[in-house]
Amino acid sequence: MFYIIGLGLCDEKDITVRGLEAVKGSSRVYLEAYTSILMVQKERLEAFYGKELIVADRDMVEMQSDEILKDADKEDITLLVVGDPYGATTHTDIVLRARSMGIQTRVIHNASIMNAVGACGLQLYNFGQTVSLVFFTETWKPDSFYDRIKENADLGMHTLVLLDIKVKEQSEENLARGRKIYEPPRYMSITQAVSQLIEVEETRQSGILVPDSTLAIALSRVGGGTDERIVAGTLTELLAQPSEAFGEPLHSLVIVGKRVHHLEVEYAESFAVDKKTWRDVASRVYGCALE
User: Fold this and answer.
1) Which of 50, 111, 119, 137 pairs with 261 at a CA distance of 20 to 30 A?
2) Which of 229, 235, 280, 225 is CA-nearest to residue 256?
């Protein structure tokens, strides 16, 4: 059996009982370590699970999946994934590969940012398409995400923006020269994300990300207890906040849709940089009826 098991959002104790039982019964246990990160080190996971973990980087999962799946038709092999297993297409792909090899598969789910985002007070059924925002470079500034945000905005839906992480990435020079030298990990901050959104708005000018009149909610370490941070405000207000206001990575950002309900506005108000501005924009720009 090949298991893909979600670890949840925070630490070693977020795994489900069913997931832990599968880990303990597996011959080999891999830890996928590039689509997201946990808030604890691998050693803490190993101590709690009672199993040695094999770190599976991008190359192993995407290019050497046969190594992970080796003997999974005869014994139990597990791949651990931060959040929920189906939060990344990479994991769907390895399940399909296993099935094509005649290997039985089982997915054990867990919490992910896709549902835990409700902690900010916005209702999950009011979200549209989720988008990813990558690090811009001087020569590469992809903006296809803007079209997805606009589609959501036209329907009045909220947009969850997942911010880029760079783990075990090579520089263009090292990649061109075939040198296996990797850059230090990088995690996109709220400040950089908002700056890039505003930059694209200035180019596209569709009016869906106007800094002074677009409400947004920044989240970090959701599910992390005292480490969790949620900050709400206009894009302009978020851009003006010091980096420490948003807490440690990983970060996510929500663009609030125009169909926002007054209960959503009132709940998120407790996270607002300026409660008066938050309510004013929600009422004046979003047309939300507030008492």
Assistant:
1) 111
2) 235
d(Cα 177, Cα 192) in Å, to the nearest integer?
Answer: 30
Q: Could you report how far apart the first and last alpha carbons of the chain are, in Å?
A: 56
Q: Which of 160, 98, 106, 105 is nearest to 129 (CA)?
A: 160
pLDDT class for 170, splitting at 50, 70, 90?
Answer: low
**Alpha-carbon span 124 to 117, nearest angstrom:** 8
pLDDT, greater one: 291 or 201: 201
Rounded Cα gap, residues 50 and 47, in angstroms: 5
Predicted local confidence at residue 171, as pLDDT: 67
Is pLDDT above 90 for 223? no
Give, in order, the Cα–Cα distances in Å from 57 to each of 30, 174, 197.
10, 18, 29
pLDDT (tens digit, 9 = 90+) per residue, 42-55?
Answer: 899 999 999 999 98
In contact, 24 and 49? CB cutoff 8 Å = yes
Q: What is the pTM of this model?
A: 0.92
The two structure tokens encoding residue 18: 């069913």
Three-state SS letters, the chain: CEEEEECECCCHHHCCHHHHHHHHCCCEEEEECCCCCCCCCHHHHHHHHCCCCEEECHHHHHHCHHHHHCCCCCCCEEEEECECHHHCHHHHHHHHHHHHCCCCEEEECCCCHHHHHHHHCCCHHHECCCEEECCCCCCCCCCHHHHHHHHHHHCCCEEEEEECEECCCCCHHHHHCCCCCCCCCEECCHHHHHHHHHHHHHHHCCCCCCCCCCEEEEEECCCCHHHCEEEEEEHHHHHHCCHHHHCCCCEEEEECCCCCCHHHHHHHHHHECCHHHHHHHHHHCCCCCCC
